[in-house]
Design a protein that fits this description.
This protein is α+β, with helices and mostly antiparallel strands and 201 residues long. The chain has seven helices and six strands; from the N terminus they run αβαβααααββαββ. The model has no long low-confidence stretch (mean pLDDT 92).
Length: 201
């Protein structure tokens, strides 16, 4: 299969029907501005407009619903336009939960890491109107957990982004213990879901 051009990716993602809360888009903008400065964010907005996917990040409302395709495209365009590596996309994912009101409320309302793990589908449903997050296994003794993201397929870079996001949430929940996240199954490698193994020390 031929690799998509950026314009083809844009057209495909803009036709994606799923929605995401504005806080995710706002966090994309925060990370780009932090890493590349105000000029980098303006550059991203100009490139998005050139591609037919105009966005003004300053007008995004945190609790509003927006196109997940547009959100994904912001990640894809950032990597290409700003010459990022995949580790930069991973760090973009890590950056997101720092400002999430949903994460803060979830942690405040649930007392143990295992209960938070089991409550994670509710957090997903607060952010997305499609797909699901499924807690598969949690072991305090072995210090690892497994989660799956189902019915989510937009772009391979989002697997990297989600790994970073999951790592940041796990560190927040586990009180900053050393956490690693590995994608152990992927929809782009023939699996029906993305699976992530979280380990901590």
């Amino acid at each position: 299969m031929e690799k998509e051009t950026l314009q083809q990716t844009t057209e495909r993602l803009l036709n994606f029907s799923g929605k995401v809360r504005g806080e995710v888009l706002i966090n994309h903008a925060r990370y780009v501005k932090k890493k590349e400065g105000k000029g980098g964010l303006e550059k991203l907005e100009r490139r998005m407009e050139e591609l037919g996917a105009a966005i003004n990040f300053r007008k995004i409302k945190a609790a509003g619903w927006y196109s997940e395709g547009l959100s994904c495209l912001a990640v894809v365009v950032s990597k290409e336009l700003l010459y990022w590596k995949e580790e930069d996309v991973f760090q973009m994912g890590e950056h997101g939960p720092q400002f999430s009101l949903g994460i803060k409320l979830l942690v405040q309302s649930v007392v143990s890491p295992e209960r938070l793990f089991k409550a994670s589908p509710a957090y997903w449903n607060n952010l997305f109107n499609f797909g699901s997050l499924e807690p598969v296994e949690f072991s305090e003794e072995l210090q690892w957990a497994i989660i799956r993201i189902k019915d989510y397929k937009t772009h391979p870079l989002l697997c990297v982004y989600h790994a970073g996001y999951i790592k940041a949430i796990a560190e927040f929940v586990l009180k900053n213990k050393k956490v690693t996240v590995e994608e152990t199954a992927c929809v782009y490698k023939g699996k029906p879901y993305d699976e992530y193994r979280i380990k901590w020390k």
